[in-house]
Write a structure and sequence with these properties.
five-stranded mixed beta sheet; 15 helices; 48 strands
């Protein structure tokens, strides 16, 4: 017999018996071999199966490419109740996914995504049972989110295992697989029935989630000629207010951010606050500490119980606040802030197989899912600055509340005024409802020595987005055109409108794959596979007609009507040239409309040096085609907040420019609009891995894989900062008011210096990202005889280099372990990238008892400023805190002056959490499970970048000690 590594058949069988191996579950095993040799063991007949990353069947546990696997037992051990939560236990997962906590106003509202290596959702291909998912109907303009595969459509209870290919895979799967592939393999066969229920909440009974699941299956394909199963899952999560999410550094958050420090929330209420115009006709109502006492009038019409005199106790900065010492009407806006929005998920999945002859099997999948989300928000407000309104084709007429002299709400006898006002009588908040449909029908068989499979896939998503209590401009404008009071307009039944946008996306696909073995080399038979694929993609995004007509205040459009057909051919071969040396070669050609045919290759090799040591490596090229929202008219419009205008505000981002600049110009809210670019080219990548496979004993396996990914020609949305920096070169990208110009020393207006209104930021090919590091996986299995078995599993990722180049020719600095846009001030892209992320689990099982302990580690993230492009600071300085003479740049963020007092190392701390789980099967037909995540109630580290919540929700969570219990009954 030709022995492979001591990762051999007997050991694989042991791993399967213990719940699956974390390194690779690349096959099923006939028999139940053991290390002691029971008549099967090494002589067991191995079943060859297809592993994620290849279309050729194999029996070896480890191939040329690194595939990490989470089995059903591994998933249960994490205690995760959603796929999005589960992805946080994958160390190679980046910190730029959508988390679906509170994204009520975001472009990807209601969606949860995965981002391998931090390369974005659009570079992480998601598969269901080896075939593509339909991208959700969004047109998110944020970098890395142009294609969104929504994980909420996958119920965690239906997953058999997850295979994560941590390598470029475009040569096998096509576009979007630059950073890798996550293949969710769902349960396909079951005989009998079971019902289960689950409940989870933290020790304060917050973040509650509950659910139930049923499975029914019948038939065995081999014995009965058919099999089918259906599973249904219902889950619900409860709303948790943000002020109740106290398992963060809550006291530090109160002190440094001033949130929840007292009962003061905001003075913007149904009792108007009036601001005097700074000079006649300027339309500027900003105030300074010197002018505020005479230029702001606070209402006293509220009940005494709502009045509050503001001080430092209320979280105000005495050095900068313009309202310190004033008595205001306090409005409790905080009660609408949430750490987790309400949600309900329903899914039904079915799979069936039928023998149609000796060599042909028919198979089919049918599934339906519905995801409902509701997000609370405070009622809408209007303020003193100009707000852009959008039409379907561009920018509408801006709205700015200006109260003329004599207006019933203007207390100034000779000056115009504006107001901050909240329409508390209107419903507020937002909601989304997404429905997904997926149908697959196909045949597979074996003829003339060829294994073949062909299928038709149809996958559709419908998404309705609701925004409640939006303001109708025609009614709002009557405040000025008819001199109506704010209160009378607020009471007008024609003021509010509930906005509804309806969106769909769909793919229809046919594929054919064939594979076989032929010939003979020194190491065995040659394996080959080939296939064709034709896919039709469509997206249809329809805004509310009133928003499209520019009739709604403060709401942008997302519009897209497009489709395309993609044609692909692919092939691969496995060459076992020697008994201990094999090569894999793959290639794929994809043809997208208006793009030249794209060919990407991949090669891999594995050399088995001895029974206990092997090395492997791969080289792959990849690509990502531009998404529909990037190459056809339409897409998302958006608002840009706190934009620094370099023409009207000084380089410190705080001092208004002379000649008419105001504090508003230092952090102004304006409109942004993307631009489709039909000349975009695909993103391209080159990935290589080299790995070491060690199996020093029959019960100890280790893989060490060094990875390096370089993505070029990145498609990014231009930024407002870039547009403003290059305004003189490209003035068409910046729209300014033609009035209110700055004046020079002689009092003459300076052309092109009016207040900002809009910035255009078209899609461009301009960036490059490089990342390198090491993936480590290890497993140690120990038999204790009558005392059971122990399985220890370690997964870890270390990021050695993380470099970003936003524009050709820009310098590239290593920003691993940091937030790129802080570490290198030249950058405005990138994601928080801790160097280390690890998880360790230890499972002990004996009879009816199963105990799992776990440790999860997320490394620190530095907030130091080290570079500004070519300039390397001799003395790095903290981006947050009090400005110091030694600062290498004048623009430190001083809004959090105490940060270095609490964090002198200027970094987000590491986060170490422990978990404990127990399963008991001693009662007939019952399985009872309890799990505690974050056993020692370790607080989520404070992150000053997240002023709304105080922590990084992509790296950490605010759950604290969290309990899960479940019960399953099998019939």
């Amino acid at each position: 017999m030709n022995k492979q590594l001591i990762l051999k058949r007997s050991v694989i069988a042991v791993a399967v018996a213990l719940g699956g191996t974390s390194i690779a579950f690349a096959q099923t095993v006939s028999g139940s071999g053991s290390e002691s040799g029971n008549g099967k063991g090494d002589n067991a007949q191995m079943q060859r199966v297809v592993v994620t990353g290849s279309n050729i069947k194999r029996a070896d546990k480890e191939g040329t490419a690194p595939v990490s696997v989470m089995t059903a037992a591994d998933i249960k051990a994490t205690g995760a109740t959603t796929v999005a939560d589960l992805m946080k236990y994958v160390p190679s997962m980046g910190s730029d996914g959508n988390q679906d906590f509170t994204s009520g106003g975001g472009f990807a509202k209601g969606a949860a995504t995965a981002s391998l290596r931090g390369f974005g959702s659009s570079s992480t291909l998601i598969l269901l049972n080896g075939r593509r998912m339909n991208p959700a109907p969004y047109a998110d303009p944020n970098t890395g989110n142009s294609v969104i595969y929504d994980l909420n459509s996958i119920p965690i209870s239906a997953i058999e295992r997850i295979e994560v290919l941590q390598d470029g895979a475009s040569a096998v799967y096509g576009s979007d697989a630059i950073a890798g592939v996550i293949n969710f393999i769902l349960k396909k066969s079951y005989q009998g029935a079971e019902i289960s229920a689950r409940y989870g909440a933290n020790d304060d009974r917050n973040f509650a989630k509950k659910g139930a699941n049923v499975i029914f299956g019948k038939g065995d394909l081999d014995n009965d000629g058919y099999s089918f199963m259906v599973t249904a899952d219902l889950s619900q999560r409860d709303r948790t207010a943000r002020k109740d999410a106290t398992d963060i550094e809550y006291q530090q958050y109160q002190i440094m951010n001033g949130r929840y420090k007292s009962n003061y929330s905001t003075y913007v209420s149904q009792y108007p606050t009036i601001f005097r115009e700074t000079s006649p006709g300027s339309k500027n109502f900003g105030v300074t500490r010197a002018t505020a006492p005479n230029n702001i009038v606070f209402s006293s019409a509220c009940p005494d119980s709502e009045k509050i005199t503001l001080g430092e106790k209320d979280g105000l900065n005495p050095a900068t606040s313009t309202i310190l010492g004033r008595t205001v009407c306090n409005y409790d806006q905080d009660r609408f802030d949430e750490a987790q929005g309400w949600g309900k998920d329903i899914s039904v999945l079915s799979h069936g197989e039928l023998k149609l002859g000796q060599n042909i099997v028919g198979f089919a999948d049918l599934s339906y899912n519905r995801n409902d989300r509701e997000y609370t928000a405070a009622p809408l407000t209007i303020g003193t600055t100009s707000s852009t309104s959008f039409t379907a084709n561009g920018v509408g007429t801006p709205f700015q509340l200006i109260l003329p002299v004599g207006h019933p709400d203007n207390p100034f006898a000779s000056d115009r005024a504006s107001a901050s006002y909240r329409f508390t009588n209107l419903r507020a908040g937002s909601a989304s409802m997404t429905e997904g449909y997926r149908a697959l029908a196909g045949l597979r068989g074996n003829h003339f020595g060829w294994d073949w499979e062909s299928a038709l896939l149809w996958n559709r998503s419908n998404r309705d987005d609701y925004y409640y209590g939006r303001l109708v401009l025609a009614t709002l404008n009557t405040i000025m055109t008819q001199n109506r009071s704010l209160a009378s307009v607020a009471a007008d039944p024609n003021l509010g409108h509930d906005v509804l946008s309806k969106n769909t996306s769909q793919i229809s696909q046919w594929d054919l794959k064939v594979s076989r073995e032929f010939g003979q080399l020194s190491g065995g038979a040659i394996g080959i596979a080939a296939g064709v694929e034709v896919r039709r993609e469509t997206t249809d995004l329809n805004p509310d007609p009133m928003v499209a007509n520019g009739e709604i205040y403060g709401l942008a459009n997302t519009i897209l009507h497009s489709g395309r057909t993609v044609k692909s051919v692919f092939a691969e071969t496995r060459l076992p040239v020697l008994k201990n040396l094999e090569f894999d070669i793959a290639g794929r050609v994809d043809k997208y409309p208006d793009l030249k045919s794209n060919f990407v290759p991949k090669v891999g090799a594995k050399w088995t040096i001895s029974d206990s040591i092997a090395v492997r490596g791969t080289y792959a090229e990849g690509f990502r085609a531009p998404s529909l929202s990037q190459i056809v008219p339409g897409g998302a419009q958006y608002f840009l907040r706190n934009v620094w205008d370099p023409k009207r505000c000084g380089p410190d981002h705080q001092t208004p420019a002379p000649g008419g600049g105001t504090v508003t110009d230092c952090a102004i809210n304006i409109a942004g609009t993307g631009g489709f670019n039909p000349d975009l080219k695909p993103e391209e990548s080159k990935t290589w891995n080299i790995g070491l496979i060690l199996s020093p004993t029959s019960n100890f396996d280790v893989t060490l894989d060094y990875f390096h990914i370089k993505r070029t020609n990145e498609i990014v949305l231009g930024t407002a900062n870039e547009a403003l920096k290059n305004e003189d070169r490209f003035p068409g990208n910046v729209t300014r008011s033609t009035t209110g110009l700055l004046v020079d020393a002689a009092g003459k207006p300076i052309p092109g210096t009016g207040q900002l209104q809009m910035v255009a930021t078209p899609w461009e090919n301009q960036g490059m990202t490089e990342e390198g590091g090491v993936d480590i996986e290890a497993q140690y299995r120990l038999r204790l005889g009558e005392y059971g078995t122990v399985r220890n599993t370690l997964r870890s990722t270390y990021v050695q280099t993380y470099k970003i180049q936003q524009f050709p020719g820009d310098p590239m600095n290593n920003v691993a372990g940091t937030i790129p846009g802080l570490s290198d001030w030249l950058l405005s892209a990138g994601t928080a990238m801790p160097r280390w992320k690890s998880s360790f689990t230890s499972n002990w099982s004996r009879g009816d008892h199963n105990v799992t302990a776990s440790v999860n580690y997320v490394g620190p993230v530095s907030l130091l400023r080290r570079y500004d492009g070519d300039t390397k600071y001799a003395q790095p300085f903290c981006h947050f805190g009090t400005r110091k003479p030694t600062d290498a740049a004048p623009d430190r963020d001083t809004s959090n002056p105490l940060y270095e007092t609490f964090y002198p190392k200027c970094s987000v701390k590491e986060w170490v959490t422990f978990g404990l789980g127990y399963t008991y099967t001693g009662f007939k037909n019952w399985t009872l499970t309890g799990n505690i995540q974050n056993l020692f109630d370790t607080k989520a580290p404070y992150d000053p970048n997240y002023t709304a919540g105080g922590f990084n929700e992509d790296l950490h969570n605010p759950y604290g000690r969290y309990f899960n219990v479940s019960a399953r009954y099998t019939f």
